[in-house]
Design goal:
This protein has 457 residues and is mainly alpha-helical. The protein has 20 helices and no strands.
């Protein structure tokens, strides 16, 4: 997929020594805002985009994802020690979606206009404030909810903008076409994993269990927020100030109406975090009676298992994903269907062994679905709506975080094994839809040497 200015930089990426016979002048402040509206090869050469330029952005994604998921293993703490009702606890888990979605839908498209760095730099301060509120308001659901919204705002920014930024930096450094999606997905999942694992250990064995993890995270946001300022910009600022009408127009994401997005990406997207939430929010609560004296550590371990398998399968995602079909998306939703079935059995038998197996399978489904969705998005998106379409994808994906709260509300009338069974049936129906659209509406099929399907008479 092309990125802004890619046509002028293809030679630069392939053979950087042939850009110019004359030595390039030292970068200046003016280089960040060239006079042309679109970036040029000269601008890219001065940006000094190297093979490791994406790492500061990935570090910021990891740190802020850490803050987004450090709350998860503490659900048991808030439920048992804080005596919050289960539906309140699951509601607090989902509260940061209220921050994620607007940050995604606004931050992504606006970064396509004003640049990646200025729109992403506020993420670290927002995440810092969120953790500070969580640390001081451990006894107040209202304060926790506000802190979660701040964490969500930060996470929404890094997911939409950071993912697009890593993609552009990877492409311009000559990495493979799937490298950007894989690196961003690994940074996000790695942050979720580390945040949950460290939080569970600190909450179970460290002093001040409801506060220590948040203090550690505040330090991480400071370090990675400063490091982020060293990442090269890939989207120059506009030479003229956009009007309000132009800004509203740019908030529209044309790729969201692409039939491939509607038929393959959208049906699978809610299952990404729906699978993860089932594994590390619902199952630990159902099986906590079997965890003995270490319920928080058990919850953290379930999260680590889920996300650990998610990271593992993402590392193999480049061999599974293909632009020629919906193979990765179909396999992901098939794995999720198996995982939800195992979750039903674990809940029915109250079995720790089945619970861990279900978490591992759901983690594989989550990880593959995430990287498959991002890969599809990056193939569909045009050069000027990559962050916007990524934001739209994540917004749909994060709706899955409301599933634990919905199931908690329904649990008084329907048992969890029954609800999981219904979920497995819905997952199978989703699989049928994805397989039906296996090779339909492939973006750029003719340019990639793929024979497009003939329309039916």
């Amino acid at each position: 997929m092309s990125t802004p200015g890619q046509a002028t930089t293809a030679t630069t990426d392939a053979a950087p020594t042939t850009v110019s016979a004359a030595p390039a002048p030292a970068p200046t402040a003016g280089d960040a805002t060239p006079s042309p509206a679109r970036p040029t090869a000269r601008h890219h050469a001065h940006a000094a985009i190297g093979p490791r330029s994406w790492i500061p952005v990935a570090a910021s994604i990891l740190a802020i994802a850490w803050g987004g998921n450090e709350f998860t293993p503490l659900l048991v703490l808030y439920r048992d020690v804080g005596h919050f009702a289960p539906v309140v606890v699951d509601g607090l888990l989902a509260a940061y979606v209220l921050g994620i979605v607007p940050a995604l839908l606004l931050g992504g498209p606006l970064s396509d206009i004003f640049g990646r760095r200025p729109m992403l730099l506020p993420a670290a301060p927002l995440s810092f404030i969120g953790s500070a509120l969580l640390a001081v308001g451990a006894d107040s659901p209202a304060v926790i909810a506000v802190g979660r919204v701040f964490c969500g705002l930060a996470l929404g920014l890094v997911m939409a903008i950071g993912t697009a930024w890593i993609k552009e930096l990877s492409d311009r450094a000559g990495a493979g076409p799937a490298a950007g999606a894989r690196r961003a997905s690994l940074a996000l999942t790695g942050g979720f994993l580390l945040g949950a694992g460290v939080a569970a250990a600190l909450a179970q064995w460290a002093p001040f269990p409801a506060r220590s993890t948040y203090v550690l995270h505040m330090f991480l946001t400071l370090v990675t927020g400063i490091w982020l300022t060293t990442a090269p910009e890939t989207r120059p600022r506009p030479t003229t100030r956009p009007t309000a009408r132009q800004l509203l127009g740019r908030l529209k994401v044309p790729g969201a109406a692409h039939l491939r997005f509607l038929r393959v990406v959208m049906p699978v997207a809610p299952w990404v975090f729906g699978a993860a939430g089932t594994a590390y929010a619902i199952l630990p609560a159902l099986l906590t009676t079997r965890a003995g004296q270490y319920p928080i550590a058990f919850s953290g371990l379930m999260t680590v298992v889920t996300l650990g398998f998610g990271v593992g399968i993402q590392s193999s995602g480049k061999r599974i994903d293909t632009r020629r079909s919906a193979r990765a998306s179909a396999l992901a939703i098939g794995i999720i269907a198996v995982g939800v079935t195992l979750a039903a059995l674990a809940a029915w038998q109250v079995s720790l062994v089945l619970g861990f197996v279900a978490a591992a399978v759901l983690g594989c489904g989550y990880g593959l679905a995430l990287v498959a969705g991002l890969s599809e998005v990056q193939r569909i998106a045009g050069p000027d709506d990559l962050a916007g379409l990524t934001a739209a994808y994540y917004s749909v994906a994060y709706l899955g975080f409301f599933i634990p709260m919905i199931l908690a509300a329904l649990s008084s009338v329907v048992s969890y094994p029954v609800m999981f069974t219904v979920g497995a049936v819905i997952a199978i129906l989703t699989l049928i839809e994805v397989v039906t659209a296996w090779q339909a509406h492939l973006p750029g099929a003719s340019q990639e040497g793929i024979a497009p399907r003939r329309p039916r008479a």
